[in-house]
Design a protein that fits this description.
single chain, mainly alpha, two-stranded antiparallel ribbon, elongated, binds heme C
Length: about 260
């Protein structure tokens, strides 16, 4: 009897939908509540949200005094190098290859030649330059700031330095007990041909990236003119060796 009365009461009043129709904003949806019509509010000026205090600007930018700095913001340990190697292999090798000669798989299939880390210019480039390139991109290279957190960027930078050193290591560079040996003899010990460690050339199947083999020039944002280093623009003709592939030098091995 009471139940029937309750049902009758609700039907008379009409069901209330408050729990269903909550006064909330859906992401990115507009509103007439705020004068600017945005439901997503900008950060309040002169405030710092949690985890956004970036006091150590060198750690976050790689710049010091307006110039790319040359130093690590934290000590390099074997763990840091291992992390850098792992992140490098995930995010950089598709274009730069595992040895950093700039002839990764994507480049072999037509992407613009990626930077070769074993050139005199990049061997002497300050560490902040590498951090800056990962954070902001460089020419045809997109930035990796969303994928790679600042600490990991520095770990990658440290690993690139180790890769560079590995190409010219002398006995004096390695600790007592380790010895330096050319890659070709390491290849032979592994049962591979000595030429395994030679310079890489782009295979004839590498294409210029367009169906008709014509260079594809992306307009630079806003300018309407060709951008620097766009995909396909810097391709050598098929079968021609890349301008600056890494040379197979001696490498350090721990024995
Ligand atoms: C999608 C391909 C691609 C990926 C992935 C990529 N790069 Fe590059 N990178 C390039 C290209 C292409 C260039 C040459 C750009 C130019 O000269 O216009 C380049 C150039 C560079 C240079 C040389 C800059 C200079 O001063 O000449 C560095 C250093 C570099 N990349 C680091 C990295 C690191 C570190 C990663 C991984 C976090 C990475 N790249 C991932 C394509 C890539």
């Amino acid at each position: 009897m009471a139940a029937a009365a309750t049902v009758a009461l609700f039907s008379a009043l009409g069901c209330r939908q408050d729990m269903h129709d909550q006064p909330k904003f859906f992401p990115e949806r507009g509103t007439s509540f705020y004068a600017d019509g945005r439901s997503v509010r900008p950060q309040v000026e002169n405030t710092v949200a949690r985890n956004q205090l970036r006091e150590d600007s060198y750690f976050y930018t790689g710049f010091s005094g307006g110039k790319e700095g040359d130093g690590m913001p934290f000590p390099v340990t074997l763990d840091v190098l291992a992390r850098g190697q792992e992140r490098f292999n995930v995010y950089c090798t598709p274009c730069h290859s595992r040895v950093g000669n700039g002839v990764g798989m994507i480049v072999q299939r037509g992407y613009a030649q990626a930077g070769n880390f074993h050139t005199a210019r990049l061997e002497t480039a300050p560490l902040g330059h590498f951090f800056n390139v990962i954070s902001n991109g460089y020419g045809a290279m997109p930035d990796y700031s969303a994928q790679v957190a600042p600490a990991d960027r520095w770990a990658i930078v440290a690993y690139i330095k180790a890769l560079q050193l590995s190409q010219h290591a002398t006995q004096a560079d390695v600790p007592a007990g380790a010895h330096v040996e050319p890659l070709s003899s390491i290849a032979e010990q592994e049962g591979l041909p000595a030429t395994f460690a030679n310079e890489w050339v782009l295979p004839p199947t590498a294409v210029t990236g367009t169906p008709d083999n014509q260079p594809f020039i992306l307009p630079a944002p806003g300018s309407g003119t060709a951008g620097k280093g766009t995909p396909g623009q810097t391709q050598p003709s098929p079968a021609a060796p890349p301008a600056s592939a890494a040379t197979a030098g001696p490498t350090a091995v721990k024995k």
